[in-house]
Amino acid sequence: MGAFPEYSRGSFHLAAESYGGKYGPAFAAYLEEQNAANIPDTVPIKLESLLLINPYMNPAMQFESYYRFLVSPGNTYDYKPLTDSIATHLYSAIYGPGNCLEQLRKCDAPGGDAACAQASVSCSWSIDAVYDTVTTRDEYDLRELKPDPFPYTFFYDYLNRPDVQVAIGATTNWTAFSDAVYSAFQLTGEEARTGDYKTQLKSLLDAGVTVAVVVGDADYLCNWFSVQAIVDDMKLPGWSAAGFVDVATSDGVVHGQTKQAGLFSFTRVYESGHEVPFYQPLLALELVERVITGHDVATGRQGPLTADFKTVGPATSDYREGNATVQFSVTPSNSSYQTTSGRPGVPWQQGPPPIGKRWLRNTRNKRIGRGL
């Protein structure tokens, strides 16, 4: 607001991705609390929407989903990499006595920093290690082997250009990862804490704020099985009566399915990894436009929406992509990405782009790393 005072009295929209599933609801709820406080000599921030992309929100549901995504019922790309014995090991690491879920419950008891830090490390190493070791695939896109060149990292240098920083009002350089913040999160077991997202999101909806959750269905780490379970568990008014319908863009292409009740929606995006705007840019753009203007996610033609709006369709999203876009050899680092086919494209003509750095962080906490 200080950098662009001309916008201070307009509407405000907040978007968050990955670990932003914790930040986004908390920040948005705090804004509403401050508005309600009517603090003298302040300007209310008119929050109108919150967009969450492949969010990490509930540790227990997130870790439980890994077995379902890899083993039973399995992901919609028909990729099942685990032998029966490894699948049994994964199940035990999640559900066995003293293992991940039990430690997460101790953290939420609450068990303090020590219990939460132990749960965070134990769950990450015992469960994430299975995927990393057995599949050697990108945790953020099941379709690609590591090192995965997507998304491109051109924006690293772009965001630190002086003219760009002046244009967006940035006062510090952009960095992809903070070791200091990561270490602090590890010491307090931040990843293992469930948080109060249910209360926060419900309060936002009660205040008339639109909340849209969008998930690329090729993402393993914050996969759509877990996020759908999380939103279903919130038991929002009208949610059980709503159903899934296709989401199409202005060119008539169906990119996924959405379920919407009132101001809340959950959208599954086909052929998309963790960063939906990279893999499905047209859908991402038009979806943002629909959300911030208060229209329905599926078509953008109905709105402004009221509390009694709901999509009518099947209770589940059952479309299966199959493994046509799953790569079984490492994609060259100079490959382009074809958003229309969901496959690697022709090589770059002017030399390779810098390869994505996220695959280098295998020994770190991936959820926290990507969220920052």
From TrEMBL:
Single GO cellular component term: fungal-type vacuole
Stretches for region Disordered: 331-356
Enzyme category, top tier: hydrolase
Coiled coil: none
Gene3D superfamilies membership: alpha/beta hydrolase
EC number: 3.4.16.-
Keywords tagged on the record: Carboxypeptidase, Glycoprotein, Hydrolase, Protease
One Pfam family hit: Peptidase_S10
Biased composition (Polar residues): 331-342
MF-aspect GO terms: serine-type carboxypeptidase activity
InterPro entries: AB_hydrolase_fold (IPR029058), Peptidase_S10 (IPR001563), Ser_caboxypep_ser_AS (IPR018202)
Protein name stated in the entry: Carboxypeptidase
